[in-house]
Amino acid sequence: MGNCSNEHRGTSFSASAASLSNPLICSSINTFFFLDKYIFSQVIQDQLNKKVLDSLAEFIKKHGLGCSSDNWRQRAREIPTAALMLGVNVPDHAMTFRSLCNLLQDSVTPFVVSVHAKECAGVYFLSVDEEQEDDTALLQRTQCTISALCQWYKTVTKWYILFLADNANNVVCLKLKSGSNHGLKILNLSFFIFYLINSRYTQELPFIFIFGIATSPSAIQHRLPHSVSSLLCIEVFHSLSCTQHLASVFDKLILNSQFPFKLSSRVIQVLVGIFLYHDFSVQNFVKGLQFSMLEHFKSQPLSMLCCQKQEALLSAKTLSKKNVERIRHLPSFMRYVETQEPQEQVQLLTNDEHVKEVCQQLLKNLHKYHKNYYPILQCLHSLTSSLPKFPLGKHIRELHVSCIEKNLWETEEYDSALQLLRILAKDELVAALRKCAEILKSTKILQNVLQQLEDFIGRLEALEEDSSGNGILSGKMEYQKTDLFQLQKTLLEKESRRTKRMNPYEVLRSQVIEFIDSLVREYLTPAELQPLNEVCYYSSSGVLRQRLNVTPRTSIQAALSHPFYYLQNESLKTDAGTISSAAPDLCIVYKLHLECGRLINLYDWLEAFVTVMSAAEDQDTNSEECGKYDSLKHARFIQAVSEMEFLGFIKSTKQKTDHVARLTWGGC
Fold first, then answer.
1. Quick one: which H or E segment has residue 352?
2. How far apart (Å, rounded) are the C-alpha atoms in residues 7 and 71?
3. Three-class DSSP category at 49
4. What's the rounded Cα separation, in Å, for the pair 49 and 38?
5. What is the pLDDT of residue 103?
6. Which class for 309: exposed (0-12), middle (13-18), buried (19 or more C-beta within 10 A)?
7. What are the DSSP calls for 530-567, one per residue?
8. What are phi and psi of 368, to 5 degrees?
């Protein structure tokens, strides 16, 4: 299922890229996105995993070359083993291992050999692929044993071997390091590691294992018997969780005013939904972002203004008459025109030069909006992320989506958050305001807001310690025998007196909350209310969902029914209800099976297949050639039927031996 989806993504991504023909648009993309170091998923993945990869490199340096201490190795036969906890973001495992291989190649060993576990069925399949040297004899396959490897190890100085295994991708990597240069060729070694055998050679040939695990370290004990796992001295290394990965990517790519390209709330929800409910892949998330960007530049002619501020202003000065007219038809610009005076409205609708001048000012305002939006968003998230039940969301992406799609201050969740902030203790409020001040200091903008925050912090710290007044009853209860009605009356009277007399901290806390509320109303307005927001914001969530979150079965049926859509071969174009003999065998067999009922007669199916294949053939062929060609057709038909069964369209049935049962209905 995942493979079908990924292939479909790649096809859509390439098609969108190929359709970008505007040189200015292509220049903008190259300048601000593809050439930017943060947009590449490999670089992002390396940054997220830098800490754990560096720890693994130190582990290998520490225990490689037989340098591990006797205290660490409890027994001489134990093999140093690192268990790398990668989580369930399976599509990124291969990239993580490639990064680890590159890191080890740069910092530990220049020799790296990668093999697939499925190709290593046993030590017998060890192979050496090396050019024949004058003094080196090539080993036969039957000679490729652990003993032979140890003998080879003794011929060089200070080599050690590292094995990296990833269960999800069935990858094993073999590392070879030499302490001196003997001018040897890189060996291509392929073999399955027998732990019991290797444990007997640890003194002669030091091994280090690195296992990639998706769930928990107990998977090693579940996969290996105790007699084997007891020979591994395991140290666990943890990578970031998938949600931490997503948060880091969000901060780098989405919540960043340096990137002019933006996503609407619904597009973000689609990308986050695919991440959380499908693959947990940072790589695929970044690819989805890239696809959104390409679709935006392809479908929005005014996306030429989606670039850095100075270049956007320069482009606005040279807008063509056609693009000026397009600006006039933007919904956000039409709303802007409606708010202006009658004379200004006439100028905006008739004077192209005036529209260009106004457009430049609106672009400045849009860039300023983004520059102020993100720091205030981070401050609000810092204040509310620790509140009970997380009324505005636990993650900043949830708060961001709420802010850009509607007026946040009109929601019940926002009112609930303010109510909780109004009962914070002094130390909690001061700590939260300090975090906000640090955020504003790092951005070096909104200095007036920073100054007011620091003023509130100073005034709060100056208050006396006994002025918190956070209890419901400030005085001591006088315990006396009374009825329930009298007790309730007394409590209500004391609560009423308390609400009327606010202590200094409560007054100051109320002022702080009102100040925060004013910041939200001023800076966190919805993006769709900003004039010319269509220039930067991609909002076609339906297209994105169709391309990235497709139903695999629907995609397969569409490809088999209309192969021209994917292969772009003119010979595959057919009229409705016809079958082209040039189509792939699987497509022909699929279309023929759509005409059948619940049970399909294999002989009739074969005859129909041969008829389609023979439609365009030359009839002037001798019988011997026809017999050979018919045998080839039968073989191709059998293979296509097997593929149909593998895809889940048919299955064998016991009702009739020469029939198969159809499993799907309503094909494309």
1. helix 352-384
2. 50
3. coil
4. 15
5. 81
6. middle
7. STTGGGTEE--HHHHHHHHS--HHHHHHHHHH-HHHHH
8. -65, -40
Query: Which residues of the chain register pLDDT less than 50?
Result: 1-39, 65-74, 123, 126, 128-137, 157-161, 165-197, 466-481, 619-620, 667-668
Q: How far apart are the first and last CA of the chain?
A: 19
Tell me the DSSP string of 414-428. Answer: HHHHHHHHTT--HHH
Q: In this structure, what token pair is assigned to residue 466?
A: 């006994």
- Beta bridge partners, 166, equal 171, 212
Residues 86/96, Cβ–Cβ less than 8 Å: yes
**Nearest by Cα to 103 from 36, 171, 44, 52:** 52
Please tell me the distance from the alpha carbon of residue 244 to that of residue 539, in angstroms, as a whole number.
26
CB 40 within 8 A of CB 290: no
Residue 397 amino acid letter: R
Express each pLDDT in 266-287 by its tens digit: 999 999 988 888 777 888 888 8
- CA gap 534, 330 in Å, rounded: 7
Q: Output the six-digit token pair for 282.
A: 């940072």
* Among 192, 230, 189, 236, residue whose Cα is nearest residue 210: 236
**Residue 367 neighbours by CB distance under 10 Å:** 18
CB 661 within 8 A of CB 651: yes
Amino acid at residue number 635: A
Extract the tokens encoding 415: 């009112």
According to the model, what pLDDT value does residue 112 have? 56
- Beta-carbon contacts of 170 under 8 Å, excluding residues fewer than 6 positions away, are 116, 117, 118
Question: How many whole angstroms separate alpha carbon 397 and alpha carbon 403?
Answer: 10
Which residue in this structure is represented by tokens 């200095």? 447
The whole-model pTM stands at 0.68
DSSP for residue 571? G
DSSP 372-437: HHHHHHHHHHHHHTTSTT-TT-SSHHHHHHHHHHS-GGGSHHHHHHHHHHTT--HHHHHHHHHHHH
Identify the sign of the CA torsion 404, 408, 412, 413: positive
> Residue type for 338, please?
E
User: Do 463 and 504 contact (CB within 8 A), yes or no?
Assistant: yes
- Matching residue, tokens 């002025």: 467
* Beta-strand pair 650-652/262-263: unpaired
Asked whether 111 and 186 are in contact (CB, 8 A), the reply is yes
CB contact set of 652 (below 8 Å; sequence gap of 6+): 645, 660, 661
For residue 411, the model assigns a pLDDT of 93
